[in-house]
């Protein structure tokens, strides 16, 4: 065991509101662990080793070193109880924030370690653009101030239509807000849940026709990306209405429900028909096979392999159009803003720097889409929208999310 005894460590200990000495020791040992100089199974508890095998941890540590250089020292230890803390680790080219938890019993092995954010020193839009360009496949990223007076901080292929995955649910939220403002529906209106879809979400396991308020459905659709809630709302609002809203923000109809998309993706013949059809033919196709799609069995493991028709059976919009959508959702009222903020989709350090974070993401093999609506402490609004698409392999979601956090870090610089 390393036993740090430097004055700097003692000073940090004094500032850390009397955290347990064993937690401080484990925090400072982490530098050697991240550098690959400390025995993995002497540091981590057996349960952690089962959940995160050494090969996976070594890959993460190597990725951090590739991005930030060598780990140097623990800068801060902020206690979150006697046996856990939030750490800031200094690297050669930046910092990383992590949550560390240790076992109460000797030898106080580490039971939890979570990287919650990274910050590259002297980062810039040019550096982010270069790292984005190095990714295989298609990428796009847009960071726009929403005051209309400044140019975008980032506009990388922001006119390129990108697959949205579950981020298309922002169209549904926008149309719902519009119809509520028009008096067609109410947030407290109760409707029965519709035909179950696949997870993500929870409603697919609930009894059919469970009564739910519209606000509860919208909350589940955005906060946990509930697919059954989404399909229920599309049926309530009407496909034509959702299509019209999608068109206002760069999308094209017909907007598939999640169940329809999954059922078409799972059938090679239907996928080919959909890919070859124009919008009018697609609408006719849905009218003809709608009952079949509603009753089709769905395999929960269908997304366990390679990308499935991500260039055709999908939802598409360019980042700059999603920026416009986020700006309108900002102005759609406090309920909409509160729903978007439930799952902030950021690391704790980034969230603390900002006054408000609204988020919706989308992912499946070969696709990641991220959409952020943020307000700074001094009241300025920004939208960050980006995506990465590959048709040949999965994308590294963590790598793209790290680029997004770096882009949010440009705000205020």
Description:
This protein has 413 residues and is an alpha+beta fold. It folds into 2 domains: 114 residues, Nuclear Transport Factor 2, Chain: A (Roll); 290 residues, 3-Layer(aba) Sandwich (Beta-lactamase). The chain is built from 17 helices and 13 strands. The strands form 4 sheets. Strands 6-5-13-12-11 form a 5-stranded antiparallel beta sheet, sandwiched between helices. Strands 1-2-3-4 form a 4-stranded antiparallel beta sheet. Helix 6 runs antiparallel to helix 17 and helix 8 packs parallel to helix 15.
Q: What labels would you give this structure?
A:
single chain, 413 residues, alpha+beta, Nuclear Transport Factor 2, Chain: A, Beta-lactamase, 2 domains, 5-stranded antiparallel beta sheet, 4-stranded antiparallel beta sheet, 13 strands
Annotate the secondary structure layout.
Layout: H1 7-15, H2 21-35, H3 40-43, H4 46-51, H5 54-68, E1 71-79, E2 84-91, E3 94-102, E4 110-120, H6 125-133, E5 138-145, E6 154-156, E7 162-163, H7 169-181, E8 190-192, E9 211-213, H8 214-223, H9 227-237, H10 239-248, H11 258-265, H12 268-276, H13 279-295, E10 316-317, H14 319-330, H15 334-341, H16 348-353, E11 354-364, E12 367-376, E13 381-389, H17 397-409
Largest sheet: 5 strands, antiparallel
The end-to-end distance, rounded to whole angstroms, is 41 Å
Shape: globular
Based on CA atoms alone, the radius of gyration comes out at 23 Å
Extended strand count: 13
Task: Give the mean pLDDT.
Answer: 92
Strand pairing plus helix content: what structural class? Answer: alpha+beta
Instruction: Specify the oligomeric state.
Output: single chain
CATH class type of the largest domain: Alpha Beta
Estimated share of beta-strand residues: 15-25%
Work out the helicity level.
Answer: 40-55%
The total tally of domains equals: 2
For the record, what is the CATH homologous superfamily label of the largest domain? DD-peptidase/beta-lactamase superfamily
Tally the helices: what do you get?
17
- Strand neighbour order, sheet with most strands: 6-5-13-12-11
CATH topology of the largest domain: Beta-lactamase
Stretches with pLDDT under 50, minimum 5 residues: 1-16
- Name given to the CATH architecture of the largest domain: 3-Layer(aba) Sandwich
């Amino acid at each position: 065991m390393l036993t740090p005894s430097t004055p700097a460590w003692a000073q940090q200990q004094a500032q850390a509101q009397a955290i347990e000495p064993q937690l401080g020791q484990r925090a400072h040992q982490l530098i050697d662990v991240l550098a690959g100089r400390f025995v993995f199974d002497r540091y981590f508890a057996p349960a952690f080793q089962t959940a995160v095998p050494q090969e996976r941890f070594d890959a993460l540590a190597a990725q951090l070193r590739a991005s930030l250089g060598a780990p140097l020292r623990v800068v801060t230890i902020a206690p979150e109880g006697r046996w856990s803390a939030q750490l800031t680790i200094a690297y050669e080219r930046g910092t990383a924030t992590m949550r560390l938890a240790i076992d109460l019993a000797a030898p106080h092995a580490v039971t939890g370690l979570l990287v919650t954010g990274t910050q590259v020193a002297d980062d810039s839009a040019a550096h982010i653009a270069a790292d984005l360009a190095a990714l295989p496949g298609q990428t796009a990223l847009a960071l726009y101030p929403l005051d209309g007076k400044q140019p975008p901080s980032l506009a990388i292929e922001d006119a390129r239509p990108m697959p949205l995955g579950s981020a298309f649910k922002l169209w549904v939220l926008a149309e719902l807000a519009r119809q509520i403002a028009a008096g067609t529906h109410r947030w407290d209106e109760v409707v029965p849940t519709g035909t179950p879809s696949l997870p993500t979400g929870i409603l697919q396991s609930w009894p059919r026709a469970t009564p739910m308020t519209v606000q509860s459905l919208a909350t589940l659709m955005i906060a946990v990306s509930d697919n059954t809630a989404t399909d229920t709302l599309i049926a309530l609002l009407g496909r034509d209405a959702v299509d019209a809203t999608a068109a206002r923000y760069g999308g094209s109809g017909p907007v598939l429900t999640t169940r329809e998309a999954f059922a078409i993706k799972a059938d090679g013949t239907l996928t080919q028909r959909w890919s070859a059809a124009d919008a009018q033919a697609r609408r006719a196709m849905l009218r003809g096979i709608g009952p079949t799609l509603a009753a089709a069995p769905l395999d929960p493991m269908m997304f366990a392999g390679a990308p499935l028709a991500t260039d055709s059976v999908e939802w598409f919009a360019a980042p700059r159009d999603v920026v416009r959508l986020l700006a309108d959702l900002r102005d759609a009222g406090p309920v909409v803003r509160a729903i978007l903020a439930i799952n902030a989709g950021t690391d704790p350090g980034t969230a603390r720097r900002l006054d408000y974070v609204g988020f919706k993401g989308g992912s499946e093999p070969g696709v990641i889409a991220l959409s952020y609506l943020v307000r700074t402490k001094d009241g300025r609004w920004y939208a960050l929208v980006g995506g990465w698409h590959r048709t040949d392999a999965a994308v590294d979601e963590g790598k793209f999310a790290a680029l997004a956090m770096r882009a949010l870090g440009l705000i205020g610089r």
